[in-house]
Amino acid sequence: MDNKRGLSDVVTAILFILLALSAVVIIWAFISSFFGGIDLDTTSITDRFSIVSDSVLDNTEENYIELFIERDSGKTELSGIIAVLENPDGVVISEEFEGSFDRYSAKKITYYYNDSFGLVKFVAIVPVYLIDGEKKAGIEADRYELKDSDRVVWVNYDTGWKFPGSVESVDNGVGSDTWINLDNVKADDEVPSSVNLNSGKSSDYLQASNFGFDIPDGARVEGVEVKVNRWAISQPNKDSKVNLIVGGVIEGNNKNMDEVWLLNTDTIVSYGGEGDLWGIDLNVNDVKKDDFGFSLSILVPGYLSPRAGAVDYIKMKIHYKVLE
Q: Among residues 113, 135, 152, which one ends one of the domains?
């Protein structure tokens, strides 16, 4: 009787072992099918990879996710790591990042994804081993669910309207006419700076700068917007050249408008705006300098004279984004 009971216990143990092995085979078969039928070598089971705590950063503006991966144990030769992203709808994308991972040393990877993918909910990592010269994907080593604090976004701001601290009348090199009462441009008070125009000539450049913009370091300039209150005196006139000044030099697209200035009727016009960099690669240092500004010249659109133009004020606003 005791012998029969002992034999029964052995048979039961063998059955449990067979069932466990079957379960392992089934799981491995599922994982292999997910990664294109690559077989998993048993040596990979001794290796351990993890996503470093608090290292995940998702830049939702530029569509990339950054994370650090650490190899905690194991010696199997590594081909790389597969990063797997999943959005809230269950859509999964992945990319392999080749290269070895030293033990106990964190390595950064940056995964750029398409804007249409949407919000990243999970990131997972899967080691890819190099066994007998063949790549073999392991099992998912670690998975991380992103929190709101892991996502950084660019937030829109602007400086508000600023009047210039400096105004000049700068010769345009073709015998131009000079602006007078320059300080009147610095305030919205219906007291203008003006210029008399001769037929066939354009005015000096009326240049406003030193706006004193307060923009945090690391911000990204997104647009420059300028408002000018102006009118014509005696006869209508027109814009000639309307540009920004960068580093004390006229730069970028000419924003002149193909319309006459209304006679003795002040008109507020806008040049540029949010998202408009005037064809210039501007940065924060450029726009914060005293020699950054706005330049305007006008001309007589015909042969009648005398003519004159008046500018009550020039003011500028910078649109920018800050990473938060």
A: 152
